[in-house]
Amino acid sequence: MEEISKSPVSDVPTLADVAARAGVSTATVSRCLNTPDRVTEKTLKTVMDAVNHLGYAPNYSARALAAGRTNMIGAIIPTMENAIFARGIQAFQEELQKNGCTLLVASSSYRQDLEEEQIRTLTARGADALLLIGYQRDPQIYEFLKKRKIPAVLTWASEPSQNFLSVGFDNRKAMKELATDVIGKGHRTIGCISADTATNDRARERVEGIWAAMRDAGLEPDTLQVVETAYSIENGEAAFQQLMSGANPPTAVMCGNDVLAVGALRAAADLGLKVPDDVAITGFDNIELAFVAPVPLTTVHVPHRRMGQLAARALIEALHGRSPESVELPTEVRHRNTL
Amino acid sequence: MEEISKSPVSDVPTLADVAARAGVSTATVSRCLNTPDRVTEKTLKTVMDAVNHLGYAPNYSARALAAGRTNMIGAIIPTMENAIFARGIQAFQEELQKNGCTLLVASSSYRQDLEEEQIRTLTARGADALLLIGYQRDPQIYEFLKKRKIPAVLTWASEPSQNFLSVGFDNRKAMKELATDVIGKGHRTIGCISADTATNDRARERVEGIWAAMRDAGLEPDTLQVVETAYSIENGEAAFQQLMSGANPPTAVMCGNDVLAVGALRAAADLGLKVPDDVAITGFDNIELAFVAPVPLTTVHVPHRRMGQLAARALIEALHGRSPESVELPTEVRHRNTL
Question: Is residue A142 one of the residues assigned to a domain?
């Protein structure tokens, strides 16, 4: 880590400078900044004019040391480039903001080692609490958070052991519901394009959901043709081509998210296959791409904004010393034109 | 702002606890944490084992006070829900991370008053530097940043006075180029769906770019039919319907971004209009929606990732006391099927 030095800060305005300019005591300035409802309108205006004129800002580092808190809450997400994380985190931030908290964000590029490093970094930077995605990680990380007394909320999943606070949804159940509909349409040879199931618990549970539906329908789960790849339109195209060029091409391809499904749709068009007559394709998430796609996607709707909002509320509860309950949000299959 | 209290922090492990457990001096622990290359592998392992076992994390609040810096850099964006900001900020964060800096994010919902409040909040929380979108804001904010010695980089635009550090692109020039192509195809009755031009400098410059192209072609800029609305697919649909139900419906509708353009495309399909034969539609940004759209969009490609990366580098330069130069990135018209 490279050290960054700032120019000398000696002429940065202080509380005393503000007090001098406003002609009041430093205690009055503090009151204006911290409990403005306890000062008169006139004093508040005089002091805030001085604050603005001098460009004064309270020193939260000093405050944080004194109070043992920073009102900064960290979120570590795989990437901001997927609309679902952007949407959930936007709602999370709006709710934090209403409660006087600031969001610290880091992204891990879906790498567990990077996520661990970022958990330590955000904690070291003073994050009071953390939002994390999924539940699968080194138990030592949970130990670390416990020892540091940092509340964490797990999102985008329902933590199966119920040992941790989570605000999410059941990926297995959601995908099982969609897979049951796929099988109900008569499909027996099924393909699946998934993210890495070894490191991504959401991806693994979605595949397990398809297996569960197959079992219930008397199909052999082993016959599910799974291609694992990173989430992108291009990768969805390549994986779909791979599935279709196999010995026993599937009649339905269930994708781990809408981005992969849009790639599959594009590849199907390139191969001259009609969707859903020649091959059915499904997504997961219900982002804008899903309904804007050339053939509007049948997919699973996930309440991302609601999840972000409730996750923020849970962390704020925890920071107030209360014990928020985990929340499992319902998902819903959205039937459009690809199944 | 509601105050949040944390549970007592007295049993949070200290540097001395780590030193005691590892059987080394506190100075050695500091070296392991700050300059690990200056200690032996063996010492590093012993100390880091103790750090991990105890769940110790260095206290950046105390460090920040001592060093006058936090290595935290703030970004205030209109919303994370637009893919272009998510993409640019993801690249910005990746570059910051490489340089040992953490990202603080706030979003302003395109509201200038909220942005101003967030500039003060992030600064108060210890942001060493800020990324801002566009250049149009109360001059008093620039004064505040100057007095606080907080470097700021303006992005998504080229700041016209060249008085501020900016890493962006020329919205007027980019849209003028596209409008010239639209006029070159024979269009004389042109519509425009734009975000609020009074508060959004990027939106205003894009409209000005169309006017400039019209002037160059001998068309009367006043004849441009502008509908202003917030960026969303639904609003794009409604604005397109409004333009088409006027007395003199345009033969080409230029949209302020791809999201609005996708809305326009959907509305055109609903009205039974063929694109581009009955009406041409153009976008701006070149996000995934643009090429996934039912008719792939002719749009302006903006190098969002590159912009985020270079903006991070500029701020890091500034924090090192150097004077980075502003950068104007090239944009490029992408011809697809809607013009």
Answer: yes
- Number of A/B CB contacts below 8 angstroms equals 211
- Pairwise CB contact (< 8 Å): A69 & B128: no
CATH (domain of B22): 1.10.260.40
Torsion of CA A287, A288, A292, A298, to 10 degrees: 20
- Asked if A66 is an interface residue toward chain B (Cβ–Cβ < 8 A), one would say no
Confirm whether B190 is domain-assigned.
yes
How many independent structural domains does chain B possess? 3
| Angle of CA points A167, A172, A177, to nearest 5° | 110
ipTM: 0.78
pLDDT per residue of chain A (339 residues) written in tens, 0 to 9: 334 444 334 456 778 888 999 999 888 888 887 667 678 888 888 888 888 777 776 655 565 555 667 788 999 999 888 888 989 999 999 999 889 888 988 888 898 888 998 898 888 878 999 999 999 999 999 999 998 889 999 999 998 788 899 999 999 999 999 999 999 999 999 999 999 999 999 999 999 999 999 999 999 999 999 999 999 999 999 999 999 999 999 999 999 999 999 999 999 999 999 999 999 999 999 999 999 998 999 999 999 999 999 999 999 999 999 999 999 999 999 999 999
Give residues with Cβ within 8 angstroms of B283, minimum separation 6.
Answer: B255, B257, B258, B260, B261, B262, B290, B297, B298, B299, B300, B338
Answer whether B292 sits within 8 Å of A288, measured CB to CB.
no
Contact A4 B93 (CB under 8 A): no
Closest Cα to residue A90, out of B246, B72, B82? B82
Parent domain of A23:
15-58
Residue of A nearest to B74 (CA): A104
Is the distance from CB of B284 to CB of B300 less than 8 angstroms? yes
Measured between CB atoms, does B90 come within 8 Å of chain A?
Answer: yes
Residue A122 one-letter amino acid? L
* A205 shares a domain with A297: yes
Q: Are residues A204 and A160 in the same domain?
A: no
Shared domain check, A113 and A155:
yes
- Cβ neighbours for B325, distance < 8 A, ≥ 6 positions apart: none
Residue B7 lies in a domain: no
pLDDT in tens, B278-328: 999 999 999 999 999 989 999 999 999 999 999 999 999 999 999 999 999
The CATH number assigned to the domain holding A164 equals 3.40.50.2300
**Rounded CA gap, A225 and A243, in Å?**
7
Please check whether residues A27 and A119 belong to one and the same domain. no
In a domain, B53, yes or no: yes
Task: Note whether A287 and A325 are same-domain residues.
Answer: no
Q: Which residue of A has its CA nearest to B77?
A: A90
